[in-house]
Amino acid sequence: MDLHQETQPQKPPNIFSLSFPNKKDIAYVLILFISLLITSIVFCNLVTPFYPNLLLPFSFSKTLPTNTCDYSYGKWVWDENYPTRKYSEDCPFLDPGFQCRRNGRPDVGYVKWRWQPHGCDLPRFDAKDFRERSRNRRIVFAGDSIGRNQWESLLCMLTYGVSNPSSIYEEHGNPITKHKGFLSIRFQDYNLTIQYYRVPFLVLIDDPPENASQQVRRAIRVDKLHRFSSKWAGADVLVFSAGHWWTKDKTLKMGWYFQEEGRLNMTMDVMEAFGKSLQTLKSWALMNCDPKTTHIFFRSYSPVHFRDGEWDTGGRCDLSNAPEIDHLKTEVNEPLNNQIIENVVKEMETAKRKVQFLNITYLTALRKDGHPSRHREPGTPATAPQDCSHWCLPGVPDTWNELLYAQLLSNGF
Question: Where does the protein end up (predicted)?
């Protein structure tokens, strides 16, 4: 028998073998998957509001650590027990214009709405804990009158539970009023100072250059901070708020033009000028703030709720006594100045600074019911415009400070 011609044993067929898909099959599968994904997102957006930060397990904003909650998005929920520990309009640090009940507002429901973030709970504000953490420190609010709204709210929140109210006082004996450009409240028992600097643009407002045309009434120096900035250095917490005045109505239409490096720029856009002013502020902070100890916050834009006209054409906001709960009806668009602020925050994070974006725009836009409206300070003429920009206290700014407290805790304050 010829061994070379011996038949080799045959391998049994592999019943589990599958042919590998070709490139055309893979392309069809990918197209089908993408189509289903897009359809699902569109359908879900029709059923419930779309929050970009919920699409991924982390927020698009890099201003918070990835293991913390983004408190910016959520919903207002009615809570009969909220607030369980809250100040009243008897707080001595309230501007008369924010005391809505005292000025005739009949309803009290606007203080019973609690902010509920998506996917987590907002830490309960603990005034005693905040005071202890702030011992021997200085907290500065700098910006427009909306910033004063928040500053007064924090003062009253921190005053709660203090056994000796007389130990908390304005260092220079000044009354709490929106007409004062600088106020400093001292908590003597804690060696804590909380200050407010009224600087609506943050940068310097100057006389126009000698060679300017008559249409130029003022120059907004986007390359130079307000003189108050020399007093901000050394603060442990800085909260900047701007945006309320950065509009064409409050700049260009008033004859206020932007100046940079000694020259007026008659064509500079308002948002471009706002961005340059924040770059000026960023440069100051990098040079004057301790990267290890100073906590810096840029608070986002606080929406207004004028209806049937603007503030000077009969606009009003006295018809609402509850937040907007239908998210599809809410006019909540991320304003351009928020994007500018967030970019500056990211740049400062790259420079290893303790900086955070205090984004209150979305939650505030839902609170059309929280303004003083026609319930303004005593002596206001009946024909005066309604106040649909500022907020009743107690009220919405208390939630801003709850977010401030939570973000300070997340950053090791």
Answer: Membrane
Confidence at 139, pLDDT banded by 50, 70, 90: very high
Alpha-helix residue ranges (DSSP H) falling in 208-335: 229-232, 270-288
pLDDT per position as a tens digit, 210-262 = 889 999 999 999 999 999 999 999 999 999 998 889 999 999 999 999 999 99
- 145 given a catalytic annotation: yes
Contact status, residue 413 vs residue 295, Cβ threshold 8 Å: yes
Of the residues 95, 144, 387, 398, only one is catalytic, namely: 387
Query: C-alpha distances in angstroms, 167 versus 162, 172, 187, 391?
Result: 9, 14, 6, 27
User: What is the pLDDT at residue 58?
Assistant: 31
Residue 115 has pLDDT above 50, yes or no: yes
Residues 6+ apart with CB under 8 A from 273: 220, 222, 246, 251, 258
Contact by Cβ (8 Å): 363, 77: no
What's the pLDDT band for 23 if we cut at 50, 70, 90? low
Question: pTM of the entire structure?
Answer: 0.82
* 373: annotated active-site residue: no
Pairing of strands 138-143, 192-198: parallel
Residue 118 bears catalytic tag: no
For the record, the structure tokens of 39 come out as: 């359809």
For residues 219 and 256, the answer to whether their CB atoms sit within 8 Å is: yes
Choice among 305, 375, 390, 398 that is catalytic: 390
Given 145, 229, 277, 389, the catalytic residue: 145
